[in-house]
Amino acid sequence: MAYELHYWPTIQGRGEFVRLALEAAGAPYTDVARGTDDSARGESALLRLLKDDAQTHPPFAPPFLKDGAVVVGQTAAILLYLAPTLKLVARSEQARIWTHQIQLTIADLVTEVHDTHHPVASSLYYEDQKPEALQRAADFRKARLPKFMGWFEAVLQRNPCNGPGRAPHLVGARLSYADLSLFQVVEGLRYAFPEASRKALKNAPRVSALHDGVGMHKRVKAYLESDRRLPFSEEGIFRHYPELDG
Asked: At 36, is the pLDDT very low, low, confident or very high (cuts 50, 70, 90)?
């Protein structure tokens, strides 16, 4: 049975972290909202499930995943649920919890990226909070982004399974969902903050090497080159406003 991924059909957003895991594993899935309404799919199908009063475990917002009778919301929780089946996490409990911790830190970074262009309220347009966005983005570029990249670099450096001559991994010696998520973050940062990310990644060569290694993964590469991979835009989390890049 194919997994059912529910996320907004026109943006990468937080759903992309789940898509990358499914694509890297070659898992069958349906991107429900990207279908047409006359096929019991489309955005209307997403909204029906989201508003279904019969759900005892209702998701708060997309993305959420349906696996038979199981419905899981929140990106990190979806990945935690999928990873053992998709073989994108090590078997030991310590490794699984450590991978989840890294994913939650990535989620914190994604929230901070979002808040550079919406620091006051998500309900307001960017233009309605531009002065605050300029201030928030300056702090993100100078303090927060280097701190996050420094931490990921340290994790890669301290992983005893990483060695010369091969792409590094965050946990163990194999591709994990945390690697895929960090790849997506680097992709997004290079789009949204090309200059700031260039400076930050200059001091994080292992993060850059991880990004390049994930991008060469056979299934990931095929997905990135397909029409299933939506482009970044100023409607998603990673938005390129030149004035925010300093």
From this structure: confident
Which whole-number Å values give the CA distances from 135 to 93, 191, 244, in the listed order?
A: 41, 20, 9
Give residue 215's pLDDT: 97
Domains within the chain, CATH numbers bracketed: 3-86 (3.40.30.10), 93-217 (1.20.1050.10)
| CA 182/CA 167 separation, integer angstroms | 13
CA–CA distance, 189 with 196 (Å, rounded to integer): 8
Residue 108: per-residue pLDDT: 98
Taking the C-alpha atoms of residue 165 and residue 85, their distance in angstroms, rounded to an integer, is 29
pLDDT digits (tens, 9 = 90+) for 66-107: 999 999 999 999 999 999 999 999 999 999 999 999 999 999
Q: CA distances (Å), 237 to each of 83, 90, 108, 111, in order?
A: 24, 29, 13, 8
- Model confidence band, residue 164 (pLDDT cutoffs 50, 70, 90): confident
* Nearest to 27, CA basis, from 7, 64, 2, 63: 2
